[in-house]
Amino acid sequence: MSRKRWRAVKEIRIADVARLAGVSTATVSRVLSDPDKVRQKTHDLVMEAVQRSGYIPNSTAQKLRTRRTMNVLVIAPRLTNPVFAEILRGVDDELTQSGYGIIIGNLDNRREREARYVDLALSRQVDGVLLLTGYIPENGARSMRDSGLPIVAMCAAIHEDGIPNVVVQDREATRKAVEYLARLGHRRFGYISGTLGSIIEAERFAGFCEGIAAAGFSWDDFVRWEGPFVFSTGVAAAEAFLQMRDRPTGIFAACDESAIGFIKHVRAERIRVPQDVSVIGFDGIEYADYTEPTLTTFRQPLHELGRVGADVLLKLIHNQMKPEDWSIRLPVTLLERETTGPVLHKDYKSLRRSTV
Amino acid sequence: MSRKRWRAVKEIRIADVARLAGVSTATVSRVLSDPDKVRQKTHDLVMEAVQRSGYIPNSTAQKLRTRRTMNVLVIAPRLTNPVFAEILRGVDDELTQSGYGIIIGNLDNRREREARYVDLALSRQVDGVLLLTGYIPENGARSMRDSGLPIVAMCAAIHEDGIPNVVVQDREATRKAVEYLARLGHRRFGYISGTLGSIIEAERFAGFCEGIAAAGFSWDDFVRWEGPFVFSTGVAAAEAFLQMRDRPTGIFAACDESAIGFIKHVRAERIRVPQDVSVIGFDGIEYADYTEPTLTTFRQPLHELGRVGADVLLKLIHNQMKPEDWSIRLPVTLLERETTGPVLHKDYKSLRRSTV
DNA sequence: ACACAAGATGTAATCGATTACAAAAATCGA
DNA sequence: TCGATTTTTGTAATCGATTACATCTTGTGT
Questions:
Q1: Residues of chain B under the 50 pLDDT cut
Q2: How far is the CA of A65 from the C1' of C16 (A)?
Q3: Which of A75, A194, B64, B112 could hold A105 in an S-S bridge, CB 3.0 to 4.6 Å?
């Protein structure tokens, strides 16, 4: 009994308001959703009853009847990575404006958690899905698409009919990263990967390889360190780097966090950045402004990406477009800062361990 | 017509499955929610129909009937701050296990956005609310509590009947921070605030003042720089700091991001940390491991905080406790790292501008 | 003042599940 | 085999709104 005390609050239903105002439930509903449909006098009458009773419509009942949940599911690989937090801000800005809510699906870098959110989507708890993740093959995306649910891919492009892509030109950017390093005189490269199996990593690595080829290098001219999009991947890469005889001098990291982890770790071992090794990141997160030295990186238009993605999803939900009409690729911009520079040891093909 | 193509997927209802299996909807429902209540044979029959039709229950209808939404609202001040992302991870881990979903309410540091989420909660879109924010006075929290909605405060403690607090001992920690700096020989202090008007900032500043008093100093022995919990607050503080004649040597920042912003900016002006100025942060975010020098800070048990808060909320939702039974205060631990050290200029009460 | 159109309101069906209660079927003991 | 008991299944009410359609009011033009 006493444990019920805090929950014992009477729920006011639309029928209560109707009775209080002496009208039908239909009229109350109309006052609340389409005031022009009722006479001013009735409107005031009803509104007073609403005020007096403190009525707030039960949104679940509304959802059932109108068949719109006014919620969108956002599936993200990891929330602690500011990249996704920032995209989410953009999404939020756009959706909030239209009265939509956000249900968050956080994979925490564990792919198997995806299934749960696919189920959630398929049980019609949401009107649409924004996919900030993507794995190869993309079964989750397909099954949601097949169920008729509007869905937008905002990781790297998912090449499936009925799934518009709102992505950045990461492939092109990564290619440019290699060219940029090559132009600075680098001849031996390092690639710090992102989450294996993710489409986004595949895209970036493909771009990297294109860059290697375009600059006239071969597969033997780079090493690849693997790991998810986190700080520690960069640290692990740094450890491997420090063990090498012929160390690369031009490093590209598929995300800023890895780049930061790498730099922190090699500097602790008295490797100078950029004099001994140049590092280029990807993302343009705010942290990268506060590292020492400040990180050269590609800035993704994260907030805009979020807004545009949400906007496309809303258009899809409102049937204002066909999915195939939309595939947007936003540009990324290179921020040349302090972690990249020309190769100093011109005679060496690479920075040898003994020179440190 | 063609624009409808992607949405033209027949929805399968429980009645369809019932017809397919030759039973009533009640039986289908029972098979799905309480299989022991039906005969094995019927069970198999129904399950086959479910499989064949690809039936997934409409969760909105379930919610309406059962009066449980299986969703929880989490109101957070800002998602790009990893503190909240990390707490959210803990919350997510706990809630996902119990089948609950998370609706995110991101204030983006703008207090006026709170109203929207209070409405969302009051319209019964969620079964409970986790409040990672809190302002003075706490009207939002009160009105949700009054409506009978389970709610847990996870910012600093909200002192209201019916609202359990799951918080960290930030007041005590902040007091210790001052004592720690005093023990290192610092005599003049700086306090970089968090978001003004937030309960959490009030708590930390109160702790700071307690520390000042406890260590035998007066109001004249510290300066306070104000701003929200972001990097740029630290930068602004650094700018003010650089303009001062009698600079403090012991700085406490109410969050790690501000501390990092401060350090970055003063180091760019050739102030050495910790030789010229000691800085102590609060939060223990991952990025604080990667700054140079590494940040001395208080580590909040963020993930645990999230788990415990979610756990308390679930107990509340399931009526397994009364709110007043629970107020939990988790300890924070001081991580002594590289941004704090003894005062070098013993003769000076503070670091004068000319000595730089 | 009357006929008719336009506007306001009410009645009742509907969204898609769960579940109390009733009815039917299966099980059991004598 | 029969009646009593237990188990399984079905019928229909219910959750709380929206909205198509019917009905009743009001307003307009003649």
A1: 1-7, 347-356
A2: 9
A3: A75
